[in-house]
From TrEMBL, chain A:
UniProt protein name: Peptide/nickel transport system substrate-binding protein
Signal sequence range: 1-26
MF terms (GO), sorted A to Z: peptide transmembrane transporter activity
Pfam family, one: SBP_bac_5
A GO CC term attached to the entry: outer membrane-bounded periplasmic space
Entry-linked SUPFAM superfamilies: Periplasmic binding protein-like II
Species name: Kaistia hirudinis
Residues of the Solute-binding protein family domain: 73-429
Keyword Transport found: yes
Subcellular localization(s) per the UniProt record: Periplasm
Automatic annotation (TrEMBL), chain B:
Cellular compartments per GO CC: plasma membrane
Subcellular location: Cell membrane
Organism annotation: Kaistia hirudinis
MF annotations from Gene Ontology: dipeptide transmembrane transporter activity
Topology with respect to the bilayer: Multi-pass membrane protein
CDD domains for this protein: TM_PBP2 (cd06261)
Chief location category: membrane
Protein name from the UniProt record: Peptide/nickel transport system permease protein
Keywords assigned: Cell membrane, Membrane, Transmembrane, Transmembrane helix, Transport
PROSITE patterns associated with the record: ABC_TM1
Family, as annotated: Belongs to the binding-protein-dependent transport system permease family.
Sequence intervals crossing the membrane: 100-118, 130-154, 198-220, 251-271, 299-327
Highest classification ranks of the organism: Bacteria, Pseudomonadati, Pseudomonadota, Alphaproteobacteria, Hyphomicrobiales
Membrane is among the record's keywords: yes
């Protein structure tokens, strides 16, 4: 069933016709058009780890708690308040009692439990980052308890991508695929916007839900349209002609030009998506040697990369975590020093070594970083073969240490702004590429693992910060990665757009629910 | 009749060869779709489970046999990523691409046939040289480049045609039963949408047609030159037939056969080449769907797209072959 013939637009029409007279305050007006270069795979909240899916669901659904754009702590959403048991194993949420789904029915604790039960049964990707979540229990219509099998510090943060679905609407479609097919093209949320048209290779339309529990105070748009435009020059043309208001994917050169052009704004968000060169630490080849990795880690000029590739849009990395994050430890990685590296190569007779790096050539930043590393290494007598691949092919090579290249490039895309989301995924020995994770350095240090695990199970942020600092020191001493960059999220906007703010917890999405258009 | 049956059987066989090659190549190139489907921080156990659910743990030939069995039952499978029946995904994406190819083919024929005929008639003249020069340029220009230039100048600077998309903003809620907006808008009596659809098709169709038109002109010219040299033309001239009558009634009618065969093939090739213009002009369609499927290793979706494009290609050729056979007086006599 598609939207065009579905239930939701019908509801929308009915609701719109009855709700208009009750609107006391400002009504949302205008249409915000956002260009997006990648098409969404589906609308299923189970896939909210994927940003092209997340950006559509962010306005259509509500989680229990959420990071507002610009915030680094979660704030209440469906949950009015919560209590954490002293052992950290039970979270009791008190729910709002005024939340309506888009079909007009009331949201209760049953819907929260149904949502989590469904995700668990479907082995949803969005639960990959939920740590030891165990089960949900309905206490009364506005109280729900979530049980964990072990304490998990970032649990609340992780809940920010658990979008609550309408049980009554979804349950009939559960079938044997846990309603995945149905929820992939239908929406069952309670958020400020309803998805009214879903044409995944062309456009997706969302319309303001006038019975949204949060109300519509302030300047908001009545309609949001995502247009899927791959070509950067086309995005630019559409931005200039006023057909789109937000164009995130135009070239860096054009973004620089737009900075000084009247009518446009270029926003640089402090993103936390570090790009890494991961050294294969488990290799029987040269990168298995810590000393060799020490030499390698001195061969990349981050400042040059920031200036010439990112054109200054970003922050100079100092270790794997963004410098303003809780638990950041400064100075853990080697500075660029090609002379020192050259000396080490000569002393150890490493001249003539040949290494391989695998990367995604479709991503210009990776390509440019590989080229710099290649040329620097050539200068000190080391040959670097670059193998460009697609993501699935590259990921497949990481499943065994033997097929893992000496160096792999990978971005970390933390799903919530917490050191755990970057450090655990990148360095925990339980999540090596060979074990199906994104620790592509195949790095395993029991001391680091113990620190990361202890930090994850604590909810005392001062203690966690200390543990993460220690872990970063050890990681630095093992020369596991080069943190290449911390690119900013650079978005070009029409100056008619009011209220845009980058959301670090939902990278590559837009806070259209907070945006209004100037007349 | 036997000829037609033989052509059909041959077409079906070649389709399965095509399927097998695509299936094989996808598996070799794709890496591991289960990792992609599992998402970040999934862990080996979940990836292994998915691999089993997706049937990727079975030997390749078994997977292919299962897949062919499904296709024979008319089932293209379910996409691992859109989670929809691939047939319904493809049915949604095919109309915008076919519409684009139809218009591009019209432009192609409208330019190739007359230019081919005229350059054959006036072979060796200035006019012939000029056209040949144009054709060389047309064949040499990369499609993506010409598409961007057209977009920047015709749509951007002169604002004569829309920059991107399938319909203008005002018509964004239009939808029709078939998905062919040109047809749907006419059926609904909505001239506004019809013209809007057409306006959005002109630039992409022109960009798509350019390379094919260059080939089309050359093929037509070559086919026609041979005809002009034949005895019956000399005879017709001797009998005092007018030059236009000779060109259209005799030469064109007889010489069109080899050219038409090529145009039939071009139709399928065009459908396979829509992706570049679809990406640049932000249009939905089978090319874009295929690219997404390839980057995600959605193997069944990739194979399905190849299958459908293959079917369209073979159908177009079959139709041309049958049409030529039926129209050819000699074969009719023999039959």
């Amino acid at each position: 069933m598609r939207f065009k013939s579905g239930l939701i637009p019908l509801c929308a029409v009915l609701l719109a016709s009855v709700a208009v007279p009750t609107m006391a305050l400002a009504a949302p007006t205008g249409t915000l058009v956002i260009a997006e270069n990648e098409t969404p795979e589906n609308l299923d909240p189970a896939n909210a780890t994927n940003s092209t899916v997340d950006e559509l669901l962010l306005g259509a659904y509500d989680p229990l708690v959420q990071f507002s754009a610009g915030a680094t702590e979660v704030t209440p959403r469906l949950a009015k308040s919560w209590e954490i048991s002293p052992d950290g194993l039970t979270y009791t949420f008190k729910l709002r009692d005024d939340v309506l789904f888009h079909d007009g029915s009331k949201l209760t604790a049953e819907d929260v439990k149904f949502t989590l039960d469904r995700l668990k049964a479907a082995a949803a990707n969005v639960l990959n980052d939920m740590g030891p979540y165990a089960s949900a229990e309905v206490v009364d219509p506005t109280t729900v308890k979530l049980h964990l099998s072990a304490p998990f510090g970032p649990f609340l943060s992780a809940l920010s991508r658990i979008y609550v679905v309408n049980k009554a609407l979804v349950e009939p479609h559960m079938g044997d695929d846990h309603a995945r097919q149905w929820l992939s093209v239908n929406e069952a949320g309670s958020g400020p916007y309803m998805i009214t048209a879903y044409n995944p290779t062309e456009s997706v339309t969302l319309k303001a839900f006038d019975k949204y529990w949060g109300g519509w105070d302030g300047n908001h748009v009545a309609e949001v349209v995502f247009r899927y435009i791959t070509e950067p020059s086309t995005q630019l043309s559409l931005l200039k002609s006023g057909e789109v208001h937000i164009a995130p994917d135009i070239t860096v050169e054009d973004k620089i030009a737009l900075k000084t052009e009247p009518g446009f704004v270029v926003d640089v968000g402090a993103a936390a998506t570090p790009l890494f060169f991961d050294f294969n630490t488990a290799s029987k080849g040269p990168t298995g040697n810590k000393k060799f990795r020490e030499m390698l880690s001195k061969t990349f000029d981050r400042q040059l990369h920031l200036d010439q590739v990112l054109m200054g849009f970003g922050a100079l990395p100092d270790g794997p975590l963004p410098a303003n994050w809780m638990g950041h430890e400064a100075g853990t990685e080697q500075a660029f020093d090609l002379e020192a590296a050259k000396k080490m190569v000569e002393e150890n007779g490493w001249k003539g070594t040949t290494l391989t790096v695998r990367y995604l050539p479709a991503i210009l930043e990776e390509k440019a970083a590989v080229e710099q590393l290649q040329s620097n290494l050539a200068e000190i007598g080391i040959t670097l073969n670059a193998e460009g691949m697609t993501w699935p092919a590259q990921a497949a090579t990481l499943q065994k240490v033997e097929t893992t290249a000496d160096i792999n490039m990978i971005y970390s895309f933390p799903v919530f702004p917490d050191p755990h989301a970057i450090l655990n995924a990148t360095f925990n020995g339980a999540l090596t590429g060979a074990k199906g994770g994104y620790n592509w350095a195949q790095y395993s240090n029991p001391d680091v693992d113990a620190l990361l695990n202890e930090a994850a199970s604590s909810s005392d942020s001062a203690k966690r910060a200390e543990l993460y600092k220690k872990a970063q020191k050890l990681i630095g001493e093992d020369y596991v990665v080069i943190t290449v960059s911390n690119p900013g999220s650079v978005v070009a906007l029409s100056d008619k757009v009011e209220g845009y703010k980058y959301n670090v917890a939902h990278h590559q999405t837009f806070n259209y629910m907070d945006i209004g258009l100037k007349p | 009749m036997a000829y037609v049956a033989q052509r059909i059987v041959f077409s079906i066989l070649s389709l399965f060869v095509l399927l097998f090659i695509t299936f094989l190549l996808s598996h070799v190139v794709a890496g591991d779709p289960a990792i992609v489907a599992a998402g970040p921080n999934a862990g080996a156990a979940k990836i292994a489970l998915l691999r089993e659910q997706m049937g990727l743990d079975k030997p390749l030939l078994t997977q292919f046999a299962i897949y062919c069995g499904q296709i024979l039952q008319g089932d293209l499978g379910t996409s691992w990523f859109t989670r929809q029946p691939i047939a319904s995904d493809v049915l949604r994406e095919l109309p915008p691409s076919l519409e684009l190819v139809f218009i591009a083919m019209l432009i192609n024929l409208a330019v190739s046939l007359p230019l081919g005929l005229l350059t054959a008639r006036y072979a060796g003249s200035r006019f012939d040289d000029l056209v040949r020069l144009g054709v060389m340029a047309g064949a040499g220009l990369p499609v993506f480049w010409i598409a961007i230039i057209l977009q920047q100048i015709v749509a951007g600077r002169w604002q004569l045609l829309p920059t991107a998309g399938r319909l203008g903003f005002a018509n964004r809620e239009f939808s029709g039963a078939t998905g062919f907006y040109l047809f749907d808008s006419l059926a609904a009596g909505n001239m506004n949408v019809f013209l809007d659809t057409l306006a959005h098709l002109v630039l992409p169709a022109f960009a798509l047609s350019l390379l094919f038109t260059a080939v089309g002109v050359r093929i037509t010219r070559t086919a026609m030159i041979g005809e002009f040299r034949k005895d019956y033309v000399t005879l017709a001239r001797a009998k005092g037939a007018s030059e236009p009558r000779i060109m259209f009634r005799h030469v064109f009618a007889n010489g069109a056969t080899p050219a038409l065969t090529v145009f039939g093939m071009q139709f399928g090739w065009m459908l396979g080449a829509t992706v570049l213009v679809e990406e640049i002009f932000g249009r939905p369609g089978i090319g874009r769907y295929a690219v997404k499927a390839v980057t995600q290793s959605d193997i069944h979706a990739v194979v399905a797209v190849v299958f459908v494009v293959g079917v369209v290609f073979l159908l177009a050729n079959l139709l041309v072959d049958i049409a030529l056979y039926v129209l050819s007086p000699r074969k009719q006599q023999r039959a």
